[in-house]
Amino acid sequence: MSIIVAKVAFSSSAPSIDQVKAKFDEAGIQWNAIDKINWNTHTYKPDVSFRIMHSDSEIYLQFKVKENGVRATYGFDAGSRPYTDDCVEFFMIPSDVEPSYYNLEMNAIGHGTFHWGPTRQERHRSDDSIVSQIRRESTLGSEPFGTLEGEQEWMLTIAIPKSLYAQMDKNLADFSGRTVKANFYKCGDDTATPHYLSWNPIGTPKPQFHAPEYFGDLKFE
Predict the structure, then answer these.
(1) Rounded to whole angstroms, how far apart are CA atoms 69 and 100?
(2) Alpha-carbon Rg of the chain, whole angstroms?
(3) Fewest Cβ atoms closer than 10 Å to its Cβ: which of 7, 26, 204, 215?
(4) Domains of the chain, earliest start first
(5) 10-33: per-residue pLDDT in tens?
(6) Are 186 and 87 within 8 A, CB to CB?
């Protein structure tokens, strides 16, 4: 699968999250479904979609989720385990010369981790000095609440400085005009109904998101 990532312009290199949300709508950025059930052991399917755009300096993501109940227990970043909560994730290989992939994982209230490395076992776990540069805002706020029952809807908007993707390839300056490999996920290991959805299909025998061989294409304008 592939997506064309539109390039947009802001008056600031680090626009506010409100400006980012408005730009998604003004630019008519389309939603993409995270709806692939890859393992018949986990068939629960929340309604999940995302959209993506970029500027000269940042990549912008917006996730929209409707699900039966929502769990948010982590209220901090480095050292958290966001995938045990209701969580959305963005994995990407940014470099043409360095095979490392980066995984951004955020729970429903926008707390999470940003790691990179060539394999699942070989990861550089970033500290708060890195993760704090990623701006985000959830419609559920930022304070942990445990579990909310019943049908829940939430949206998470994220701004990622492109400079964070140059940790391994120092020559990486921009993504404009390039095609990179990526995937998007929704999961919840410790939720009432554990689930593992992806944008691009995954062919592993059991739930596994660290599978760059199954990434799709992002074509940056």
Answers:
(1) 35
(2) 16
(3) 26
(4) 2-220 (2.60.40.1190)
(5) 999 999 999 999 999 999 999 999
(6) yes
